[in-house]
């Protein structure tokens, strides 16, 4: 690119002076801006400050465009974990319905701090200065703003064609326009790069920044309010932005995390993201997911694939063993959406999928010698077995399917009621172990008197925090002896450094698959929030608040990870952070707080 004429530089300098002034808050503030947000302290390990910032994030324009950002924060054991360590980079430019476009922008800088703020801007503090990335909602533009202290190389691929001294284009067929006030490499000073797809750039950079702030604030202000203290209220809003940013704005799928390991749409994780959005009043975003899932390709009639491609919605056929909790969560989710909105036409549109699911559930319960759904990998994907989590969520799903059939005027709901009750009792009779619900059951053969009998028996590890959430959501009353005894058992056996581990012997982040924990049994954010939600259902809000604070204190500048190191120092485990489901669970727990 050639250097802009001096008059343009003067104008741009004035523009950035105005822009800098505009960063100071106006006298009129929305409810989002009225509380302070102090980030927790972070961690020093072996004299290195690590794990306080995410390595990967997503942004989207809430309509049809998404970008994936490598923040430049290095991942520990990157090669071992099969993760890329990149400089600050923007890639995976997705535009619906066209798909992923060939575009990469990278900056030659070393990042020391990265976070998302409540204007939905990604802030990178680097050795070359600060970089801000934003994607104003409902526009075809995204901006990269630079405040540099030294000359910095910026690389854009593929090669662009110059239209004027400040405007360039990539791919004239599906044009990607690049507008800048600088020359490459960028020198010391304030610069911008604006990228737009299909439409010519908007030269009013200040107007785009103001538009971004206005639209993000407006969206957050529409959220249902919570009774949380100010720091956790801000965490609630930030979690909403993470869930919103991690959705494919065109299809409706959700990424489990911006981390490449989890850059897929799991049916289960996505269901909780959609639930969190509809509980918080953001019905349109949730609707996109339920409508997409109702039309997604099925593994077989009435059963979804475990996960789908985040960008095109195609099933990941490498996950051949189904995870059957997804069908129950679909039933729960669509009834919840109807109950919140009263939208009967929505129920009618998803009913063909619901009908196939119910037929599958009834067939399997009826044909099973145990009157259970078949074995699956379930929530932790660690073994093929009969899982309490899967069975209980299918029971809840059938319970809400009855309500949907009634709402639509179908009289055969009584058949569903019969099988829901059968499943409910089968779960209790098979999974209850005297003081807890077994997480998983396997089959074994007993030989006696010359005869053999196949029976179900618990598979270790048997005590599991995943047994809490179905109880939170109503499989049994939380005050029942079953529920209370299970809760106390799980809490007493799995509490680690203030949070709740999944199960004893959990090596997933330690030496089984990922390698970012210094020991086994890390407490997970979602399981700790399962516990918090249980306390809320019991009316013990002070204990729930303690657990929400624990989750916040173990975040990456408010971005919630999957899990936390189990021994001191208890830092957020970085390889799968931020985890979208963690943010979704925080939203759900926040909305239940009184």
TrEMBL record:
Domain of life from the UniProt record: Archaea
Annotated transmembrane regions: 7-24
Keywords: Hydrolase, Membrane, Transmembrane, Transmembrane helix
InterPro entries: 6-hairpin_glycosidase_sf, 6hp_glycosidase-like_sf, GH15-like
GO molecular function: hydrolase activity, hydrolyzing O-glycosyl compounds
Name this polypeptide is given: Glycoside hydrolase family 15 protein
Taxonomic source organism: Sulfurisphaera javensis
GO BP annotations listed: carbohydrate metabolic process
Every GH15-like domain range: 246-534
């Amino acid at each position: 690119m050639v250097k802009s004429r001096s008059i343009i530089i003067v104008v741009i300098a004035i523009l950035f002076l105005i822009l800098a002034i505009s960063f100071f808050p106006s006298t009129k503030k929305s409810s989002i801006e009225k509380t302070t947000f102090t980030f927790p302290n972070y961690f020093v390990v072996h004299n290195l400050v690590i794990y306080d910032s995410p390595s990967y994030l997503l942004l989207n324009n809430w309509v049809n465009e998404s970008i994936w950002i490598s923040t430049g924060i290095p991942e520990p054991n990157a090669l071992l974990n099969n993760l890329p360590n990149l400089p600050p980079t923007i890639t995976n430019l997705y535009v619906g319905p066209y798909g992923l476009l060939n575009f990469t922008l990278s900056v030659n800088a070393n990042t020391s701090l990265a976070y998302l703020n409540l204007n939905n801007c990604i802030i990178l503090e680097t050795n070359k200065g600060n970089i801000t990335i934003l994607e104003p909602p409902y526009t075809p533009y995204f901006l990269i703003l630079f405040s540099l202290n030294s000359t910095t190389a910026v690389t854009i691929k593929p090669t662009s064609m110059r239209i004027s001294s400040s405007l360039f284009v990539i791919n004239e067929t599906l044009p990607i326009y690049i507008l800048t006030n600088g020359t490459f490499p960028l020198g010391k000073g304030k610069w911008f790069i604006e990228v737009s797809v299909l439409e010519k750039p908007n030269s009013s950079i200040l107007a785009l920044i103001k538009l971004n702030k206005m639209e993000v604030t407006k969206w957050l202000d529409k959220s249902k309010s919570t009774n949380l203290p100010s720091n956790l209220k801000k965490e609630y809003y930030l979690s909403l932005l993470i869930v919103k940013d991690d959705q494919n704005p065109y299809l409706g799928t959700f990424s489990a995390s911006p981390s490449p390991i989890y850059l897929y749409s799991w049916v289960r994780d996505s269901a909780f993201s959609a639930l969190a959005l509809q509980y918080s009043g953001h019905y349109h975003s949730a609707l996109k997911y339920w409508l997409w899932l109702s039309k997604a390709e099925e593994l077989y009639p009435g059963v979804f694939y475990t996960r789908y491609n985040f960008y095109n919605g195609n099933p990941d056929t490498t996950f051949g063993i189904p995870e059957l909790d997804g069908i129950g969560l679909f039933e729960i989710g669509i009834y919840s959406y109807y109950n919140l909105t009263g939208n009967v036409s929505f129920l009618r549109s998803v009913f063909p999928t619901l009908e196939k699911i119910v037929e599958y559930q009834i067939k399997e319960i009826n044909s099973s010698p145990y009157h259970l759904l078949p074995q699956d990998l379930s929530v932790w994907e660690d073994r093929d077995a009969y899982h309490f989590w899967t069975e209980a969520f299918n029971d809840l799903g059938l319970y809400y399917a009855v309500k949907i059939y009634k709402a639509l005027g179908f009289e055969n709901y009584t058949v569903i009621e019969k099988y829901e009750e059968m499943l409910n009792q089968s779960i209790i009779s098979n999974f209850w172990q005297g003081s807890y619900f077994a997480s998983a059951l396997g089959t074994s053969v007993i030989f006696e008197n010359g005869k053999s009998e196949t029976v179900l028996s618990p598979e270790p590890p048997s005590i599991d925090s995943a047994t809490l959430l179905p109880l939170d959501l109503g499989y049994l009353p939380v005050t029942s002896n079953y529920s209370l005894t299970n809760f106390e058992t799980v809490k007493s056996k799995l509490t680690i450094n203030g949070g709740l581990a999944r199960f004893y012997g959990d090596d997933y982040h330690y030496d089984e698959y990922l390698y970012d924990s210094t020991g086994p049994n890390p407490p997970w954010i979602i399981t700790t929030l399962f516990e918090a939600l249980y306390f809320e259902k019991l009316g013990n809000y002070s204990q729930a608040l303690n657990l929400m604070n624990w989750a916040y204190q173990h975040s990456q500048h408010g971005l919630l990870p999957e899990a936390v190191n189990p021994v001191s120092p208890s830092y957020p485990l970085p390889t799968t952070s931020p985890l979208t489901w963690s943010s979704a669970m925080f939203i759900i727990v926040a909305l239940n707080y009184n």
